[in-house]
């Protein structure tokens, strides 16, 4: 998934970006809410595209029922873009404990990395 960001992209540049697979073209200065929306939609489309090609489908992801309440809290805060420090402060636990919970969430959901975890969260 790609998003093109440019000062004042010309029509030719936009067309070229779309042909290369860009999901959207944004002009600088970038509205952060719009960028977040575009990225979420792009990730959702990417996961659904791969599911249609025989990849892992979001509904096949097991492990949500195995999450503890604390792991669900940490997952929600990670999905909201909170750092380990911010999550730790909000939940009154150390950032290291947040890392442990986050690692367990990733293991239970089968996420290989943070980007994979976000794909799972955004498509379920």
UniProtKB/TrEMBL annotation:
Q: What is one Gene Ontology biological process annotated in the Swiss-Prot or TrEMBL record?
A: phosphorelay signal transduction system
Top-rank taxon of the source lineage equals: Bacteria
Question: In what residue span(s) does the Response regulatory domain sit?
Answer: 1-43
Could you cite one Gene Ontology molecular function of this protein?
DNA binding
**Domain HTH luxR-type: start-end pairs:** 60-124
Keyword terms: DNA-binding, Transcription, Transcription regulation
Task: Identify this protein by name.
Answer: HTH luxR-type domain-containing protein
| Organism, scientific name | Devosia sediminis
The taxonomy runs: Bacteria, Pseudomonadati, Pseudomonadota, Alphaproteobacteria, Hyphomicrobiales
């Amino acid at each position: 998934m790609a998003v093109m960001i440019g000062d004042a992209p010309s029509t030719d540049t936009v067309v070229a970006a779309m042909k290369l697979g860009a999901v959207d073209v944004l002009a600088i200065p970038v509205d952060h809410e719009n960028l977040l929306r575009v990225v979420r939609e792009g990730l959702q489309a990417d996961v659904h595209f791969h599911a249609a090609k025989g990849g892992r489908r979001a509904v096949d992801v097991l492990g949500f029922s195995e999450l503890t309440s604390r792991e669900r809290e940490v997952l929600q805060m990670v999905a909201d873009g909170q750092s380990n420090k911010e999550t730790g402060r909000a939940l009154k636990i150390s950032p290291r404990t947040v890392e442990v919970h986050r690692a367990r969430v990733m293991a239970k959901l089968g996420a290989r990395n943070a980007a994979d975890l976000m794909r799972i969260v955004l498509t379920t």
